Amino acid sequence: MYVSAYSSYSLRACSSGILLIPAPGPVFNGPLPIRGRFYVGITIYDIAKEAGVSIATVSRVFNNNPRVSEGTRAIVQEVADRLGYQPHVSARSLARRQTETISAIVPMLSNYFYAEVLKGLQDRMSATPFDLLVYSAPTLDDVGEQAEKALHRGRSAGVMLFSAPVKGDLERQLQQSDTPVVLVDCYHPGYDSISTDNRLGGEIAAEYLLAAGVQEPAVLMANPLSVPASHRMEGFRGMLERNGISLAPSHLVVSSEGYHDGFNEQAGYDGMMSLLEAGIVPDGVFATSDVQAIGAMDALRNSEYKVPEDVQVIGFDDLPIARYLGLTTLRQPMHEMGGRAFDLLMERMVHPESTVAHTVFAPALVDRQTTRSAIVA
Amino acid sequence: MYVSAYSSYSLRACSSGILLIPAPGPVFNGPLPIRGRFYVGITIYDIAKEAGVSIATVSRVFNNNPRVSEGTRAIVQEVADRLGYQPHVSARSLARRQTETISAIVPMLSNYFYAEVLKGLQDRMSATPFDLLVYSAPTLDDVGEQAEKALHRGRSAGVMLFSAPVKGDLERQLQQSDTPVVLVDCYHPGYDSISTDNRLGGEIAAEYLLAAGVQEPAVLMANPLSVPASHRMEGFRGMLERNGISLAPSHLVVSSEGYHDGFNEQAGYDGMMSLLEAGIVPDGVFATSDVQAIGAMDALRNSEYKVPEDVQVIGFDDLPIARYLGLTTLRQPMHEMGGRAFDLLMERMVHPESTVAHTVFAPALVDRQTTRSAIVA
DNA sequence: CTGAAAGCGCTTACAG
DNA sequence: CTGAAAGCGCTTACAG
């Protein structure tokens, strides 16, 4: 494979006709639209003066307080529009003792599972006044650090914590905070949560592979610190055992990457290669995520094994891409999970004392071409 | 294909051992860790009183003001730690006239290109005190709406606008704002920007396909309102013409989806199918994104065409997944783009009046197995 | 090195 | 329906 190194280049007209401008050197001479980092702009005092009312009245019209006459409301509105007034968010938050932003702490944006869940979240949020702060926490230490920021006083109206084991310091952090929390893809008895039944998913995968004639299954697992990955594996292994087949330690390959890594193509590729290099050729592979399955299939292809003829492969997640790759997998309703997570958070904000609720989705088998049963049927 | 409908279920112990709790109904009886949506917690007044100093002094130690004696600094610190004090972000922003959050307006999180760029951004940001607000703007109207929120007074120290045509209302919005802006994957003479040379990418794709023996190329393009997609296509077509080959209108299929859709697998699939159904079987296909290429390959597979033997395929982006799919493509340095975008924004915040700079990356050809030259070589 | 005071831009009882 | 005033929790000259 050949990769020409990319480079950023400057100071020449490139093929697209865009004039490239180096950091120093005056090229653009038009008026600079940017003035600084300080807030300027007009306040309620400006519009109060202009409209001939008090600031209280101005504030009332912007808060849709009914106790403002139509007349004054109209003139305030007109002045505000003309001057391009907009409330200052920090001042408003401070005075209201309430903020309109919520935070999501996710292991990494470049994990497509999270991208999909966040998409669902955003779609649901778009009809609300809330803004979304996204914190990235690839390692367990990062989770604590980012949680600290997200739970900062006045920072978030609520936080959604993704895929984190809630115990120890993190558990303490959450307990000390008054911010509503919902857990996504993880569990703790004290907090609302939304997840899919990972054990059940593993069980379904095992049943399915068994029915498809697999006799020597292997598991490509992400980092064992990941609770979802562990549950998927345990469900799989348990169902195997209930069918009289045991999962040999040699057939369980675990990613050594950081706590929430191992959910990527490379880990799947490496895991599959390590199996193959050890002379192990399973006839069925359960990967704890779709991307791992994709990596594994690449390893199989490079080693001249055919999927599903030689090796059947099943993933987990059902990313949109899985469909176009013909990947058999267990679907998590990612979009819906994001939307529901937001609903739960709103519910908790409105009723802080209501009973904690856990929503668990059942994963659904999506039968495609990387397994044999589809062919048989 | 069979998909069992997933469902959320409640009130039974599921296989994973998690007790499912319905929304109403008391099951969790432990102490509720959540108390409400209002800020509580201790302020500088509390710690000033406890430490026997003024609030000014407390503030100074938290702002690392050197003019505090070591002794008082130590006691204030101790009291603050003991009481678990943390500054209130809104109060601080208001008083400082400055906020520590920046905003990114992206078409959609579920487009993996953005997920990768944002990852690069986050990685760079993690060493800074800044937080990231993510706005999602799938349609052109949404862009205006979200920009309005992101540019709200006091909202963002800076905003990064992704893939949006900066003209008309949007241009006006930016001009009226004092917030530093950097453009990512788009261009305007008045704002710092970072992008890749899309036309050049198209040209390279054309040259490459031609060299690989393609005689009847086709283009699978995203929505024509997308400037990057248009430039890629134009570069491709131009280079073809310079080589005496013209791109017939029948061989240019354009997605009819919304302004920033068409960058997805389904669009690639549908585009390829429409070609095939019209009896057109190109021997080379340039897709304006990797995911479109993946969709197209699925269509080809379903129609029993072999890649690259019958049809060569080249994508754009070089998502991590492309490598494991053997997809030949043009790489954009997504991670680096995110990091650089942040640097540009910081630079602009510090030097509001400095010359506008445009950074353009040259896309790099990554030669893999969906084209023939790799095999020939 | 430290404190009193004004101010950041809103909201919201409290009177009228 | 409207206004004066206090307050949200900080920061930052200004004095000392």
Account of the 3D structure:
Two copies of one chain form a homodimer. In chain A, strand 10, helix 12 and strand 11 (328-331) form a beta-alpha-beta unit. The first copy, chain A, is an alpha/beta fold and 377 residues long. Chain A is built from 14 helices and 13 strands. Residues 1-39 of chain A have low confidence and may be disordered. The first copy, chain A, has a six-stranded parallel sheet with strand order 3-2-4-5-6-12, sandwiched between helices. Chain A folds into three domains: 44-87, Orthogonal Bundle (434 Repressor (Amino-terminal Domain)), CATH 1.10.260.40; 101-196 and 335-361, Response regulator (Rossmann fold, 3-Layer(aba) Sandwich), CATH 3.40.50; 198-333 and 364-376, Response regulator (Rossmann fold, 3-Layer(aba) Sandwich), CATH 3.40.50.2300. Chain A has helices at residues 44-51, 55-62, 70-83, 89-96, 112-125, 140-150, 168-176, 198-211, 227-242, 265-277, 290-302, 320-325, 334-350, 373-376; strands at residues 8-9, 101-106, 131-136, 158-162, 181-184, 192-196, 217-221, 252-254, 284-287, 312-317, 328-331, 358-361, 364-366. The interface between A and B is large, with 134 and 134 residues. Strand 1 (8-9) of chain A pairs antiparallel with strand 12 (358-361) of chain B. Chain A binds a DNA duplex (16 and 16 nucleotides) through residues 39, 43-45, 53-57, 59-60, 62-63, 65, 67-69, 72, 87-88, 90-97, 153-154.
Précis, in short:
The structure is a homodimer of 377-residue chains. With 377 residues, the first copy, chain A, is of the alpha/beta class.
